[in-house]
């Protein structure tokens, strides 16, 4: 069920679907990335029967917030000035396998014997129910380089197999997922927290079958082929920004917009407005990634 945090005026500061996996310590950590205030703050249980709606105080701990409504106040219970940070979710659409020879797809299939989230096994080489998913989206390769990730990649494969000099197609940035989880991963419906035992944490209802699973990594004995923890941390942050900041961002219907792999640019309901144009720019950058890699090596 939902955990909802509001300010003194009733505005939603944060909300998420509680599977019993987010404790108070993690919740406070997430809040520090999505709210700002010049004052110290604390979370109280909202109780309309108590003066100013302030109920019990909840400090950071390993106890789990019960579903319900909470209020953010000063530690002494007085009103606080608070707002949302300017951080926004990084745009993302489901990964399209369109590199010249799909090296990352072939290599991740060789490395991973199953969906690393659900542990659903590949049987007799049948990958029809599996997809290779990037942790950090390929279309944001400029930001990827700016953050210094190419220097972190130790994958020994030739650059031609790593997506070019950015190395963004390294298997250290790719995991094998069950097909029905691939789009949800790309849309930040759930994430993996490497600082809490690699536990799978969904942010929205409908993912009880994977909630609490531990990401399978024990089969990767070569550290040069293991996905980077910093990439999982980044992906987890995107999930927090998309689903826990305020009332959460609306879901962009990429199945409607991109179903069949085509883009009908005449649809102003999809591509119109600021957000629609941002999605179009993202999708074009994503689809042109293979051309950039090909030009780098003269293919």
From TrEMBL:
<dbReference type="Pfam" id="PF13391">
    <property type="entry name" value="HNH_2"/>
</dbReference>
<feature type="domain" description="HNH nuclease">
    <location>
        <begin position="128"/>
        <end position="193"/>
    </location>
</feature>
<protein>
    <recommendedName>
        <fullName>HNH nuclease domain-containing protein</fullName>
    </recommendedName>
</protein>
<dbReference type="InterPro" id="IPR003615">
    <property type="entry name" value="HNH_nuc"/>
</dbReference>
């Amino acid at each position: 069920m939902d955990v909802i945090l509001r300010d003194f005026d009733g505005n939603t500061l944060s909300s998420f679907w509680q599977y019993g996996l987010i404790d108070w310590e993690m919740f406070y950590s997430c809040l520090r990335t999505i709210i700002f205030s010049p004052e110290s703050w604390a979370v109280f249980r909202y109780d309309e029967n108590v003066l100013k709606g302030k109920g019990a105080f909840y400090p950071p701990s390993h106890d789990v917030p019960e579903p319900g409504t909470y209020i953010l106040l000063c530690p002494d219970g007085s009103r606080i000035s608070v707002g949302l940070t300017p951080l926004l979710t990084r745009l993302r659409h489901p990964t399209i396998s369109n590199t010249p020879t799909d090296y990352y797809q072939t290599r991740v299939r060789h490395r991973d014997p199953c969906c690393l989230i659900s542990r659903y096994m590949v049987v007799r080489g049948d990958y029809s129910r599996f997809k290779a998913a990037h942790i950090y989206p390929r279309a944001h390769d400029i930001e990827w380089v700016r953050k210094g990730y190419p220097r972190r990649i130790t994958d020994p494969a030739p650059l031609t197999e790593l997506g070019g000099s950015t190395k963004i197609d390294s298997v250290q940035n790719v995991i094998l997922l069950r097909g029905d989880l691939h789009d949800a991963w790309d849309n930040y419906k759930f994430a993996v927290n490497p600082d809490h035992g690699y536990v799978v944490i969904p942010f929205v209802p409908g993912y009880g079958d994977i909630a609490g699973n531990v990401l399978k990594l024990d089969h990767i004995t070569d550290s040069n082929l293991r996905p980077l923890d910093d990439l999982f941390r980044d992906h987890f942050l995107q999930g927090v920004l998309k689903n826990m900041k305020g009332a959460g961002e609306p879901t962009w219907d990429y199945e409607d917009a991109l179903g069949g792999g085509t883009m009908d640019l005449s649809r102003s309901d999809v591509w119109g407005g600021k957000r629609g144009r941002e999605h179009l720019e993202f999708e074009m950058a994503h689809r042109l990634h293979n051309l950039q890699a090909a030009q780098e090596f003269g293919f």
